[in-house]
């Protein structure tokens, strides 16, 4: 049995007119205003965004005004992906024009990005846009960008999005090798502050994977955090690292015991996984 969707009269009227304009390939100020009305009713309507972009190009609308308008829509629709994709399209259109490109200053993006992430520090769509922004304007080593991600981690050490962005800043460019030792030290420092934070452990392990480093170097760091003779270990992630170190070194008995402890004592939520890993030794 199918159920009818109860659209409002206003929504049906706007969308009916929008369809007519689309079919007639109408590109004018009236059509532009209509897309604004449609997006106010349903900001996630992909076809409307594409139609608006075509109109903007056809009528040669001021692209900087379009960016300003886009910011207002973004602030009212925090979880919308299409807004950020659309913003990329507008900026790319600006950069195609030599004269407009001279007027564009990438610093104009910082206020809206900061405002959005202050509202929701883990907004995936905004972080994805920020990654594109860094890549597009080669900002991996920009002081503002690095200071921002540092401040986000100071505010919330468990913000996985901020950790992911930091990894991209430090290791997403050709000259990444110079950051390896500094970032290993940084990750260790943050782990000591919060030993049971998976984000900082993922960051540390990610560095070793990126640099193809010897994970065995982490043994002396992990052992105090995973002292199973104590009443309670400080970090199950440290015990996991030790298990992986022993596995890589061929110490199957030690690795098996660590995986058993993870399964039965320290991380029973993932018991099936640890049991499986133990059986693969």
Automatic annotation (TrEMBL):
List, alphabetically, the PROSITE patterns matched: PFTA (PS51147)
Alphabetical UniProt keywords = Magnesium, Prenyltransferase, Repeat, Transferase
Which BP terms in the Gene Ontology apply to this protein?
peptide pheromone maturation
Q: Which InterPro entries match?
A: Prenyl_trans_a
The protein's superkingdom reads: Eukaryota
What are its cofactors?
A: Mg(2+)
The EC class name is: transferase
The GO cellular component terms are: CAAX-protein geranylgeranyltransferase complex; protein farnesyltransferase complex
Keyword match Magnesium = yes
Tell me the GO molecular function terms. Answer: CAAX-protein geranylgeranyltransferase activity; protein farnesyltransferase activity
| Coiled-coil regions listed | none
Please indicate if the UniProt record lists RNA-binding as a keyword: no
Question: One short Pfam family name for this protein?
Answer: PPTA
Q: What is its EC number?
A: 2.5.1.58, 2.5.1.59
Q: SUPFAM superfamilies, from UniProt?
A: Protein prenylyltransferase
Q: State the family it belongs to.
A: Belongs to the protein prenyltransferase subunit alpha family.
**What is the protein name for this chain?**
Protein farnesyltransferase/geranylgeranyltransferase type-1 subunit alpha
């Amino acid at each position: 049995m199918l159920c009818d969707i109860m659209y409002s009269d206003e929504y049906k009227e706007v969308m009916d007119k929008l369809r007519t304009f689309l079919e007639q390939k109408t590109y004018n100020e009236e059509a532009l205003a209509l897309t604004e009305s449609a997006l106010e009713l349903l900001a996630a309507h992909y076809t409307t965004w594409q139609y608006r972009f075509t109109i903007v190009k056809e009528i040669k609308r001021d692209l900087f005004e379009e960016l300003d308008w886009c910011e207002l829509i973004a602030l009212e629709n925090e979880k919308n992906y299409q807004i950020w994709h659309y913003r990329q399209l507008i900026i790319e259109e600006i950069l195609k024009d030599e004269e407009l490109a001279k007027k564009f200053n990438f610093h104009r993006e910082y206020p809206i990005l900061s405002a959005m992430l202050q509202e929701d520090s883990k907004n995936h769509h905004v972080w994805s846009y920020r990654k594109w922004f860094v890549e597009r304007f080669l900002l991996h080593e920009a002081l503002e960008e690095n200071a921002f991600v540092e401040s986000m981690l100071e505010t919330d050490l468990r913000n996985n999005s901020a950790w992911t962005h930091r990894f991209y800043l430090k290791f997403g460019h050709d000259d990444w090798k110079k950051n390896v030792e500094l970032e290993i030290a940084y990750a260790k420092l943050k782990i000591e502050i919060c030993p049971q934070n998976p984000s900082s452990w993922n960051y540390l392990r990610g560095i070793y994977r990126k640099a193809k480093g010897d994970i065995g170097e982490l043994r002396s760091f992990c052992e105090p955090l995973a002292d199973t003779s104590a009443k309670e270990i400080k970090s199950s992630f440290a015990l996991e690292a030790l298990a992986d170190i022993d596995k890589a070194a061929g110490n199957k008995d030690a690795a098996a015991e660590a995986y058993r402890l993870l399964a039965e004592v320290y991380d029973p939520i993932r018991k099936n996984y640890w049991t499986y890993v133990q059986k693969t030794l």
